[in-house]
Amino acid sequence: MRNQANPWLTGNLFVLVLGMLPAIILIGALLYFTAWAFAFSFTDLALVGKKSVEWSWVGLENFERLFTRRGFLESLWTTVIFVFFSAIVGQSVLGFLLAAVLRGTQSSIRSVVEVCIMLGWLLPDIVAAFLWSATTSQTGLINQLIVVPLGFRPINFINEYALPIVTIANIWKGTAWSYLLFSAALDSVSREVVEAAKVDGATPFQRIWLVQLPIIRPHIATNMLFITIWTFTYFPLIFAMTGGGPGRQTETLAVFLYNQSFARGNLGFGSAISVAMLAIVGVLSLFYLRLLREPK
Amino acid sequence: MENQPSRLTAIALAFMAVIWVSPFSWLILNAFNPLSTGQLEIPRAFGFDNFGLAVSGNAGRQFINSFIIAAGTATLSVVVGISAAYPLSRLRIPGRNALLWTLVLLRMLPSAGVLVPLYFAAQRSGLLNQLGVIIALTILNLPFTLLLLKNFFDTVPIELEEAAYVEGASLLQIVTKIVLPMSRAGIAVVWFFSFTGAWNEFLLPLIFARVQDAFPMSVGLYAAFGQQGAINYGFLTAFSILYAAPAVGVYFLLRRNMNTGFAGVGVKG
After folding, report:
1. Cβ separation of A257 and B165 shorter than 8 Å?
2. Contact between A116 and B92 using a beta-carbon 8 Å cutoff
3. Is B159 on the interface with A (CB under 8 A)?
4. Which of A74-78, B43-47, B232-236 has the lowest mean pLDDT?
5. How far apart are CA B70 and CA A117, in angstroms?
6. Mean pLDDT, to the nearest integer, of B185-201?
7. Across the interface, do B116 and A271 touch by the CB < 8 Å criterion?
8. Which of A115, A201, B40, B217 is most buried when burial is the number of CB atoms within 10 A of its CB?
9. Which domains does chain B have, with CATH numbers?
10. Any idea which architecture A57-293 has in CATH?
11. Predicted complex ipTM
């Protein structure tokens, strides 16, 4: 525990508090705006028209609509599939495998692979969306290099396999984060432990599964927490690639929220969606934090 | 344990790297082709005409707008973050961890959720401009910035500060000569995250920037998709490359710091 009786701190309490002031004001603003977002979820506020001025309180009506009307539950299911396959299966597993394989290999291969996956991560969302629309279009790379030479007719991937394509694009874009985090985590595992396991006759698979994984479990939980939540609320890539379509195949909750709030102008209902999303995210976070705290 | 990867592993890795960069082929082939049609083809001509278009007029202004927003947000976040994170790390404030995590959790709310109140507030205070975007993004970044910076400051041994105090250093000297240099990697990471986050930001400037002069590149690119029905692919691809370049460039500049910095993102409850 830090000691409160450090003279350079206690002698300058005023300065320290003054330093915190800007942050306190901005955090206050954040809380204020969030409180308003909550309040809006109990109203029928609209973006345009009469109800943008003369809105009224409607109680829990917006939340009832979440479950009684079509849209929210379907969207939730799409989001679950998207998060599970792109974040948990794709980014996390692929990122870990890469980090484990590249650990301690010669630096040239490692640098090349690192730079390649970082390029995807660093690319702005809109550019990534643009790139993947072009790659999967009827005259795009996949059709010209694989589908057509094999004698099939070109496939319009973005129309026929929208959700898988968006999922792959997100794996492509996001794997670098998991890779970097796992890479740093594996570096913190002492070599002696791994060497000792090797001497005792553990196979490479056992060394990863039984020795390294348990040691970096806190990192895994942190990574899961971040990427699950980010993917859950991720908006620009899907929106710019498909806008939620075709039909509603790729309408994740973030896109559903945008469409309801800004395309249809139902700000009240939109706020109810974001409150529901916050509740889901909160439950997930508690689950991961428990995983993080549990003693080894 | 410098084990060479087996030949099979090396081939698999190389294959993966090729797949990973293959989508860029279309972007580059079209950007350097003055007669670009948006098809994936080997260009018959080669030139920088598209890049000329992409730095002049509106496009050039959008680049500057993006830079102002990104550098402004990153610097403001780091300055506000440091001055609050140091006291947070050193003073024993009850429930500070719970508070920080609650804030981070709150920020997980999709930004479209707080967009409406943010918009109303900015409209009332005349901040529907770049300064407004910078402040709004800083507000949205702050919980995460605070948590990361506090974790980095926690790793600076307090004994060093004690020793400096005994030698007669003031608080300002302790912070600028010991704490900041020792958490340089962490600060670089936080600055970089805020910079790329703001550079990429799409939704907020879309709603805050009402006139075309104020568009950053993200909004400009999105708007250019449907301009007059006909899409100038050569211009768009060159513009995309210019738009992607700074984030990539800043990363490689800070790369060494980044890799150490990431270790700190790790655990800390």
Report:
1. no
2. no
3. no
4. B43-47
5. 23
6. 85
7. yes
8. B217
9. 68-265 (1.10.3720.10)
10. Orthogonal Bundle (1.10)
11. 0.78
